Amino acid sequence: MRNSRKFWQAERLLHLALWLAATCTARDAGLHLFEAVEPHMGTLVRIKLYAAGADQAKPAFGAAFARIAELDGALSDYQPESELNRVCRTAIGTPVAASADLFGVLAASRKLAEETNGAFDVTLGPVIRLWRQARRDRRLPDAAALREAAARSGYRKLHLDTARRTVMLDEPGMQIDLGGIAKGYAADAALAVLAALGIRRALVAASGDLAFGDPPPGRRGWTIGLDSPACVLELANGAVSTSGDEQQHLDVGGRRYSHIIDPATSMALARPIGVTIVARRGVDADGLATAVSVLGAERGLALIEARPGVAGRIVTDRVVASTRWPGARH
């Protein structure tokens, strides 16, 4: 995936966190901090971990990055021969078997679509592609083309059979785009690989989607810096996802159009909104950040409050936070 909509924002968010983590003294626990960065899923994926030495850290990095690469091959809509794109070509009216990873992400996506009445919709691929081209052309997409693309979208046209683990699409020309949820899933998966290798003090940052395990030695959690407005969180064994329009947008006629599309209108969001979600899993935080952006502050906050173990902060012309938003140092 080449969608880097949150990477540079994540770099700012993580700058303070990574610097502080690097200054932690782990000698008493016999652990040392290691860091590695590789390009995957259209962005730079950064992993921080505490290990007994390089002999433990190096293969752990290799296994975690290999898992992310595997997921890119399954979930990418950019790679022509990805599993996702093969399914989109062959599952028209015919159930097609899917891997556990692809089916799991599609199932989570479908569930969120139902809970939000379609505010989150991974079948919006045809519309998203028109807006990607619009950002390159620096002009709004053609209205007729948007209507035609929207006719090939709609989460109710995606059918999943859990018992057989199959996927079926209703119409030719449908395209699934998992850009709003796949990186969170990948961060979770990489963290699980590290834990299986005995490394539980780790942080995985896939663009603006962060998953983190046990805290650094001697600390209560990983220090996560947020901006607009600035605050600092200290979190462990959870995930954070941030969504906004600072890096990917289209400016036309004095209006800014976000990379986030409202499935109800096929239009890019033209109102400023920044959303940060804290959840147990990255796949949940990632999808919710997009959904809440579409829903707006009032309905988005209601969605957050209805999800056990989830907290959120929404920035528009004011800042609102859910009742479970963790204590922050401003």
**What is the CATH domain class of the domain at 86-169?**
Mainly Alpha
At CATH level 2, the architecture of the domain at 86-169 is Orthogonal Bundle
Kindly state the percentage of residues in helix. 25-40%
Please indicate the percent range of residues in DSSP E strands (runs of 2 or more). Answer: 15-25%
Structural class: alpha+beta
Query: Which spans have pLDDT < 50 for at least 5 consecutive residues?
Result: 1-28
Q: Summarize model confidence as the mean pLDDT.
A: 90
How would a crystallographer describe the biggest sheet?
8 strands, antiparallel
Q: What Rg, in angstroms, do the CA atoms define?
A: 20 Å
The CATH H-level superfamily of the domain at 86-169 is ApbE-like superfamily
Count of DSSP strands: 17
Q: Strand order of the main beta sheet, please? A: 1-2-6-7-10-15-16-17
CATH-defined fold name of the domain at 86-169: T-fold
SSE order in H/E notation? HEEHHEHHHEEHEEEEEEEEEEHHEE
